[in-house]
Write a structure and sequence with these properties.
The protein is α+β, with helices and mostly antiparallel strands. The protein contains five helices and seven strands, in the order ααββββαβββαα. The protein has a seven-stranded mixed sheet, with no helix packed on it. Strand 4, helix 3 and strand 5 form a beta-alpha-beta unit.
Length: 233
Amino acid sequence: MGTVTFDKFVLQTKFELGERTDLSSHSDLGDLYEDWINMSYLTLTTSMKIKGVEGQLYFPELFTDDTSQSTTDGQAYINVPSDAVYIEGVWDTTNDIELENISWAEYKERTGRADSNAETKPTEWTRRGAKTGGLYLHSTPDAIYAMTIYYYKTPTVLTGSAVTEIGPEWDEAILKHAVVTGLMKLKRYEEAAIEYKGWIQLMYGLMGMYDRERRDREEQLRIHVRDRSRSKF
């Protein structure tokens, strides 16, 4: 979790943009500083890549699971968690098996989806449409099976004394991105370009740290694969 509260983010962003009080209480739009902070927070945490920065963003704190979903006999779908950005996997906890992810095109080719005689425990899943009823299963379930959905979530919008759900090392990056966003909205493009360059440099340092973790994981995987291949001889 971060250490800077949302209220303090507002004060810092206001200071960076010249203490403009009119942006705190726009007659139609409300507090623009608050909007820019949350826009930056959500942009940072729900983007896989950022223009100008190599590598992929990685926030392990936002990977979670939902154990509240269960199948219904004869119903081909369950709900996607309301805060899900993308689903990593689906586990049938009743039968202790992982369901295979297939494309929507593959799902449509499956036969017997509406045939009650073909119903059995599902072994595959795909995502389609709205979050309510948007996770389709094949085969169509023939009973109640408890499901665990592993997914990457959208963080909760910040208010009041709340802090971010990601590490405190990202607090400065969120603040600086909010400043850039504000400058762009105010059409102060030259200042925005200067601030953006500074933000990119900050992101390089943060991404380098997480990239090191990725390289360590990949190196461990290579060692594991190499050891397994040697064990065959």
